[in-house]
Design goal:
- This protein has 212 residues and is an all-alpha fold.
- The chain is 64% helix and 0% strand.
- The chain contains 9 helices and no strands.
- It has helices spanning 28-36, 40-62, 65-82, 92-116, 134-151, 158-166, 172-179, 183-199, 201-208.
- Helix 6 (158-166) crosses helix 8 (183-199).
- It is globular.
- The chain starts with 27 loop residues before the first helix and ends with a helix.
């Protein structure tokens, strides 16, 4: 089964019209079912609906536009190749997020190896993800980085659950599918992370300064 990828490494359309954005997320399972059957149009609509979200999730974890573009491209290529193996089309969105998280983990692992051998990191990308107001963008980037510093201090999956809920805005059921954990466990991780967030001295200082 072959798919025609309609986005370049900047998320721009190439050889197909952009999906009519009246398509809603509740259509994703139907589109996934059609894509499994070989529909190029359905596969491209999934890309159009979810490309921005997947890119944003990756970018807020590595803060490099160029690398985030490459990883997002890889996520959707993997989606095209693995669509036939997706058993539950209702879970197309968390399935893609799970692929994205795995690619981010692989990327960070290789970056760590590169650093061990003395290779430098790329400078953090200063451009806006949304190409919006530069001041608002910088404030959001500062907030995301501060949140990451906080979640890096959390044990186990608490930090990832916190990021998925409040940065990526996934629901409990979607986080459960993304991390392959039951909803009760996700809720427990989230409860603990929120409590630690409220009690964290650094976060309290930021809140006093109006940064959270």
């Amino acid at each position: 089964m072959k798919y025609l990828v309609v986005f370049n490494n900047k998320g721009e359309k190439t050889n197909q019209d952009a999906t009519n954005m009246t398509d809603h997320y509740d259509r994703l399972p139907f589109l996934a079912e059609e894509a499994k059957g070989g529909s190029v149009e359905a596969a491209n609509r999934i890309v159009s609906l979810l490309h921005k979200e997947v890119f944003r999730m990756i970018y807020y974890r590595i803060f490099s536009r160029e690398d985030a573009e490459d990883l997002t491209q890889e996520v959707f290529i993997k989606m095209f190749k693995g669509m036939g193996k997706l058993d539950d089309t209702d879970k197309i969105r968390p399935w893609l997020f799970a692929i994205a998280l795995n690619r981010v983990r692989d990327f960070k692992r290789w970056k760590s190896i590169e650093r061990l051998f003395g290779r430098s990191y790329d400078e953090l990308d200063k451009l806006s993800v949304e190409d919006s107001d530069p001041g608002a963008h910088m404030e959001r980037m500062e907030l995301i980085k501060n949140l990451q510093q906080f979640t890096d201090r959390l044990p186990g999956s608490e930090g990832e659950v916190f990021m998925l809920r409040f940065v990526d805005q996934l629901g409990i059921a979607e986080i459960s599918s993304t991390l392959n954990k039951n909803e009760s466990t996700v809720k427990t991780h989230l409860y603990r992370a929120i409590k630690k967030f409220r009690d964290d001295p650094f976060i309290q200082e930021m809140m006093k300064g109006g940064k959270v």
